[in-house]
TrEMBL record:
Signal peptide: 1-23
Boundaries of every YHS domain copy: 43-88
Source lineage: Bacteria, Pseudomonadati, Pseudomonadota, Alphaproteobacteria, Rhodobacterales
The keyword Signal is assigned to this record: yes
Record keywords, A-Z: Signal
Name used for this protein in its record: YHS domain-containing protein
Stored NCBIfam families: YHS_seleno_dom
UniProt key word Signal: yes
Length: 157
């Protein structure tokens, strides 16, 4: 139990030290304006194999959240099947979700596993997550059903 408290404390400290703000939304990690992935193109992770900034001129709104794209082709791909490109756990940190909290996922610290996009808070956190991806995904899937509709700030108390 102390390990979990220490880890959660580290996650909370990382959030405050990096200046990352908890998302304004509940189910989706988006800015107060509703912008997801800090403006990164969700399709590019799959097609380019890298985080790619989207353009403010090429956007699509899905479930009240705005996504930006680096090309019209990526926008069309997303609009044809948005669920295939959305980050797991609403874009919150996959490791944090496994621990039962919602902390920002950094769109530059990512991994695709079994055709799903996962974000992590930091490189250090991702190193731990990579140590047991199947186990953490299983835990996160279970925890997500419990925390999906909860305010991120409440979970850190």
């Amino acid at each position: 139990m102390n390990k979990i408290k220490t880890l959660l404390g580290g996650l909370a400290l990382s959030v405050s030290l990096t200046g990352a703000a908890l998302a304004a939304g509940v189910e989706v990690n988006a800015s107060s304006t509703g912008l997801a992935l800090q403006g990164y193109d969700p399709v590019a992770y799959f097609t380019e194999g890298a985080p790619t900034k989207g353009s403010y001129k090429i956007t699509s709104v899905y479930e009240d959240t705005t996504y930006r794209f680096s090309s019209e082709a990526n926008k069309a791909t997303f609009e044809a099947d948005p669920e295939a490109y959305l980050p797991k756990y609403g874009g919150y940190c996959a490791f944090g979700t496994a621990m039962g909290v919602k902390v920002d996922g950094d769109p530059t610290i990512w991994r695709i596993v079994d055709d799903e996009l996962y974000l992590n808070l930091s490189s250090d956190i991702q190193e731990r997550w990579v140590g047991d991806i199947p186990g953490y995904v299983e835990k996160a899937d279970t925890k997500w059903t419990e925390i999906e509709d909860k305010d991120p700030a409440v979970l850190l108390q």
